[in-house]
Amino acid sequence: MNQRCAVIGIGQTHHKAKREDVSIAGMVREAARAALDDAGMDYGDIDAVVIGKAPDMFEGIMMPEHYLAGALGAVGKPMLRVHTAGSVGGSTAIVAAHLVATGIHKRVLTVAFEKQSDSDAMWALSVPQPFAAPLLAGAGGYFAPIIRAYINRSGAPNDVGMKVAVKDRLHALKNPYAHLQLPDIDLKMVEESIMLWDPLHYLESCPSSDGAAAMVIAAEDVATAQEKSTGRSAAWIHGMAMRSEPTMFAGRNQINPQAGRDCAKDVFAQAGVTNPRKELDCAEVYVPFSWYEPMWLENLGFCDEGDGWKLTDSGATSLDGGDIPWNCSGGVLSSNPIGASGMLRFLEAALQVRGMAGEHQVADASKALGHAYGGGSQFFAMWVVGSDRPA
Amino acid sequence: MSTAPQPKQGTRPVAIVSFAQAPTQRRIEQANEVELLMPVIGEVYAQANMTKDDVDFVCSGSTDYLIGGPFSFVTALDAVGVWPPKRESHVEMDAAWALYESWVQLQEGDLDVALIYGFGKSSLGDLQRILALQLDPYTMAPLWPDQVSLAALQAQAMIDKGLATEEDFAGVASRSRRDAMNNPNAQVANDLDVATLLKEEYIASPLRRHCVPPLSDGAAAMILVAGDRAFDVVDRPAWITGIDHRIEAHAFGVRDLATSPSTTKAAHIAGVGEGDVDVAEIHAPFAHQEILLASALGLSSTTALNPSGGPLAANPLMAGGLIRFGEAANRIMDGTASRAVAHATSGPILQQNLVAVLEAAS
């Protein structure tokens, strides 16, 4: 990065199954307005808008950013639309941050959303395409065999996924924005829920949500001034990275993808992190299906390959006494407005290091990871944010 | 020895060093998107004497709505073969904005080479109905207005304001299709005079068939190199010395359709008016839009407009804007121009516009 930059404003909607009370424009505006209020700014203060969402077919609007330009105060400004599959919320934040880190703009508003109730993501994902392997039953059907292969390879006990499902829903009870609020959640409830894609029970899958996320990313001088005027601290960006690899080829390691390992290595090197489990206070990682927690623990280098399930099993990733809490917000398992889900991970990491995460705050969090992945676990976006300015 | 000109935006000079496009056709049935892209990407590597291992960053532009399925960019990525894994991104916009994102990335200073590509096959569906889905989903899309009718509203607004006549529109089309006779990648090339064109029936008054772009299948790719390394690749790199993009309101009722303030603002910021412009490649799918945009860009009568034939000769969606950048860069690289303007548009009737100044090193 050429210049230091920081997150100075954060906003999100209360994620729900159906937001029938607002249009898409109204929904993104809720998140954008909250982020601007947090930053002590108004639409007029913003230099550029970067928006992201998952496939346009999820709502049935082609390139909806055109229709949203007015609602987001982008008229007369540069507006970019990012789409990198499920990782898009993270990639969008990174594209926005680069506009500031390069000195091109000083104050960038970045927004991501999905209004799943306007269409049917499962249907949209299942349209047959010539010469491409059909996804058929949506993302869960695609990932279940990979999860099964992980279980076989690692020798993990069968209940580790269910433990993640319980833990993240307990975390969600501390996050008023989380979609799923299941006060009675326990292993029995998960186990008794219907088997969707073996080994994934219904409650081991993410919900379908309507929701939006927004952040204001600012240059160092602006961030310093706003910290003074609003009295709220900034989350400084210590590193950001993206990596992609092809969906399929012979010998591809789909359980522990190289692109994820490379991306983690890059972002941790930028942030000066050598031992993420020790040096980070928490992580917000894209876990749409329970078993992706142990799989990503290994992929991101929080433990050795094959040991991810042991961390989860021991409670290390729990906000309640764990040494490296993952997804204190409840994660994707508790709220999944798809296009926004990656940005929510980036945003929740920033909330933690700003000390603004409320009930799901990790005490004295000073460094956190935000992570998103997409496609056939082939697109990765990550950032590390901290309460201190990077060196 | 040449030195890279100092850019007006950003701090690091970045140049276009190679460009290739698939010969545009009405319907390419023999190749899917990957097959369409592979030879094009192969050609930009060959021109630059590079392989994919030289590329630090990959960025593409496309839309799922042409293929009618999600994630069309995911399969298209197989045309690059990002293995080992690469830094890669995608915009659901014309690939000219993928160029913009790449240019930003190269400003960071740690990466030097970017590969950009865009693709679109209009033949896969009914474009008039597909593009209606780009409009406000609550107030406009349910009416299914087609893009030709919307463009006609804009053309009529220009006539009503006395900014152009139907003869002027025919003049643009006549010149464009004649110039296209020298462009092997063009789809519509012919030598018809204005009087002949004006005998055509209206499609949507005041637009006749000649005012309307062809339906096209196509793809394009480009390589950007940052810093003096560009001189190692090509004798005359096309340096991006100014670049900016702006969006306007979506609702037609609040816009003056006969003007393009977003283009004017972007052109001002990119510094279009700070020197003579030898050639401009303007992403004006409809004939009247070239007149509108040339005025909004502030170009003088000495600038050669769309010598490639422009979008009236070949109009592959999502690659069309990048092709304007490529055609303008080619004029710099082949020595026929020393300062050029490239323009790209996105959204209904010119809602969003990107403008860049390309220059040869002095």
Automatic annotation (TrEMBL), chain A:
This is Unannotated protein. Coiled coil: none annotated. InterPro entries: Thiolase (IPR002155), Thiolase-like (IPR016039), Thiolase_C_2 (IPR055140). Residues 251-378 form the Thiolase C-terminal domain. CDD domains: SCP-x_thiolase. PANTHER family: ACETYL-COA C-ACETYLTRANSFERASE (PTHR42870), NON-SPECIFIC LIPID-TRANSFER PROTEIN-LIKE 2 (PTHR42870:SF1). One of its GO terms (molecular function) is acyltransferase activity, transferring groups other than amino-acyl groups.
